[in-house]
Design goal:
The protein is of the alpha+beta class. It is built from one helix and four strands. Helix content is 13%, strand content 15%. The radius of gyration is 20 Å and the shape is rod-shaped. The chain binds zinc ion (ZN) (2 copies).
Length: 68
């Protein structure tokens, strides 16, 4: 009798990818209009980008000035 169970193939957890609509400034889904960094093409909320510009914050990814 051979009822040895075959182990199921390992299921890899979904890797955490920055989704297209993920804003790195407020760390959540982009709401409303989207601002795209002209240098690295990272999308942010337009509202977050405007705030970042006022506060002199830099793009999280490429450290370029936000020019929303
Ligand atoms: Zn950038
Ligand atoms: Zn945002």
């Amino acid at each position: 009798m051979n009822d040895k169970k075959v182990p199921p193939p390992p299921v890899l957890p979904p890797s955490f990818n920055i989704r297209d609509n993920f804003c790195l400034f407020h760390k959540g889904p982009i709401q409303g209009e989207t601002y795209t960094c002209p240098t690295c093409k990272t999308p942010y909320c337009l509202e977050c980008a405007k705030k970042a510009k006022l506060e002199g914050k830099l793009c999280i990814k490429c450290k370029q000035l936000v020019i929303a």
